[in-house]
From TrEMBL:
InterPro entries recorded: RGS (IPR016137), RGS_sf (IPR036305), RGS_subdom1/3 (IPR024066), RGS_subdomain_2 (IPR044926)
PANTHER family: REGULATOR OF G PROTEIN SIGNALING, REGULATOR OF G-PROTEIN SIGNALING 18
Domain of life of the native organism: Eukaryota
This protein's name: RGS18 protein
Sorted UniProt keywords: Signal transduction inhibitor
GO biological process: negative regulation of signal transduction
Residues covered by the RGS domain: 86-202
Amino acid sequence: MENPLLLFPQLNISASKDKPYYRVMKSAIKGEPHKASKPGAKQKRNRLSLLLQKPEFHEGDHLGKPGNLTKAASVSPEEAVKWGESFDKLLSEKAGLDAFTKFLKTEFSEENIEFWIACEDYKKSKSTHELLPKAKTIFETFIQKDAPKEVNLDFHTKEVTSQNIGQPLPTTFDAAQNTVYRLMEQDSYPRFLRSDPYLNLVKGRNPTRPILRRRSRSFTVNDFQGVRPDFSLW
């Protein structure tokens, strides 16, 4: 049988004209599997849901909770008892200061102890040259209006402190620091002494690792194995 292209030369012309079209279609067809391989929005949501159900994903959920205030292994009951003698005694020991700081974080008021620590560091400056940048940082962080960690000061104390920032002295923040100290001593310190983590330290109990629970979980058959139904409730 003769080649139909020889009998009908126009077919060859048509085919040559259509070659670009076929090349475009071929390229489009090749691109389809690649496009389909990308996960859709639904697939992404499913993967995220599975990730959220993994226990290790929520290990950080309990950080900062009262059960993690400090390690009992590094604090003896006798040492913890001394913390209850006075607020000054608590802050004078590093372990006590750390435990109290973590406690304030659970109450979202850690800016108070951070300000107090910053003032203690400020007063240790060895030269007036160090005072100005430190004073400016403390003022902008804790005292000025809408500061990122603004502490609760009365108008008079804040005004006097603001006026002394231009020519700071080692005593520039004394009034503000004393105000915040009394606030913590009268308010946060008594609650710290009544908290379960502190009482556990006094009793020599080790804080146990909190049980991690999934936020969403479906029941499985294994959950009901060995469980007898209580027909009295029907």
